[in-house]
Specification:
Layout (H helix, E strand, L loop, with lengths): L2 H15 L6 H6 L9 E6 L9 H13 L4 E6 L10 H7 L4 E3 L25 H12 L2 H8 L3 E6 L6 E4 L14 E3 L2 H9 L3 E2 L7 H4 L6 E4 L1 H6 L8 E2 L11 E5 H6 L2 H36 L1 E2 L4 H11 L1 H13 L4 H14 L3
Parallel strand pairs: 1-2, 1-3, 6-7, 6-8, 9-11
Antiparallel strand pairs: 3-10, 4-10, 5-8, 5-9
Helix pairs in contact: 1-5, 1-11, 3-11, 5-14, 12-13, 13-14
């Protein structure tokens, strides 16, 4: 499928999900200037600009252009505003109005949205991932949990499927991960535990210095591995395991959003579809670039179909069901959320 066709699919999905305001004709007319007061928001990010952040970069550019610079989103990289694991706390406290984080950093704060971190969910492409994440974000239980932190979910980073990249002798079978320390968060960590690995939490910004010492390997999208230069300290990688992905959303302070003029609120909602288009383009280009470089500099590891089938049998539905049961026991609609993911994924992203 060519990229132009994918953008059409994204736009159709965005309209179906209500990510854009108005009809396509009205959207075309929305190039007109949006009048309003001067507002500057700070956005708490970590690392540097990369495919992962191209969505919010596109949103920031769009709102600035449409308002003639009156509404600006200042993306502050490098964790200067907050430790990545404390970004949601910063939103709750009103330290900044907008931030990104990964749900696996603190799953107890928002247990219901952790359904998106389950391993081996059927997310074959980024359009489907976007549709699934948006459906879960809109669920009342999920929205209510984030409201407790004065937060509203804005958009997902729709991260590509994770893969493994590691240092030292390359694994020849999944059995070779027994006893290995692997940076794998959330449901991916639970999956790696099924084959004997030891999930080891390491912040993304520390992965470069941790590889081959603190950890033997990490699960990361190919484009992110490239962005954090992990190929410089690694010797092997995988490209077709597709064990799952993580939910790393952008959230907005609900009091800050409510304080915006109505036209700025509408503009932010309009910008989501533009952000998602930019994310898909950047993630796909970054994956291609990473794969070309990694193929030239490292050993590509593959596992047999029989091994992967056994891995999925142990780490997909059994972990899904255990997660749903745990949440049902805690009074949350775990089974309903899991069914929402699976039914939305079955419809795809178009």
């Amino acid at each position: 499928m060519q990229f132009s066709r994918k953008i059409t699919a994204v736009t159709a999905t965005a309209l179906a999900l209500g990510l854009m305001s108005g009809t396509p004709t009205q959207l075309h007319a929305q190039g007109a200037q949006v009048e309003g007061p001067q507002v500057t928001w700070r956005f708490s990010a970590w690392g540097t600009r990369r495919p992962f952040t191209e969505g919010i970069e596109a949103v920031a550019a769009h709102v600035a252009e449409r308002t003639g610079g009156n509404f600006t989103i200042n993306i502050v990289y490098g964790g200067q505003l907050s430790n990545p694991r404390e970004n949601l706390d910063g939103i709750e406290l009103g330290a900044f109005p907008m931030a990104m984080f990964c749900s696996s950093y603190h799953p107890a704060k928002h247990p219901s949205v952790m359904v998106l971190d389950l391993p081996f969910l059927p997310l074959p492409d980024l359009e489907t991932t976007m549709a699934v994440h948006e459906a879960v974000f809109a669920h009342p239980q999920v929205a209510q949990e984030f409201a407790q932190w004065n937060a509203m979910l804005y958009m997902s980073a729709i991260i590509p499927q994770y893969e493994l990249i590691g240092a030292g002798e390359a694994p020849r079978s999944l059995e070779d991960f027994r006893g290995k320390r692997v940076r794998a968060l959330g449901g991916l960590g639970r999956a790696m535990s099924e084959i004997g690995a030891t999930p080891t939490p390491v912040p993304p910004t520390d992965l470069y210095t941790s590889m081959g010492g603190v950890i033997d390997a990490t699960m990361f999208p190919l484009s992110s591995s490239l962005a954090f230069r992990l190929h410089e300290v690694s010797t092997w990688f995988t490209a077709d395991m597709s064990p799952g992905t993580l939910n790393c959303p952008t959230v907005i302070s609900k009091p800050a959003f409510d304080a915006l003029p109505a036209q700025y609120q509408e503009l932010l909602m309009e910008a989501k579809a533009i952000g998602y288009e930019a994310l898909i383009e950047a993630n796909e280009a970054g994956t291609v670039e990473a794969l070309e470089l990694f193929e030239a500099s490292m050993e590509r590891v593959t596992f047999t179909d029989e091994e992967m089938d056994a891995f999925r049998a142990a780490a997909a539905e059994p972990i899904w069901d255990a997660w749903a049961d745990e949440n049902e026991a805690a009074g949350r609609p775990g089974r309903e959320l899991l069914d929402l993911v699976l039914t939305t994924a079955a419809r795809g992203g178009s």
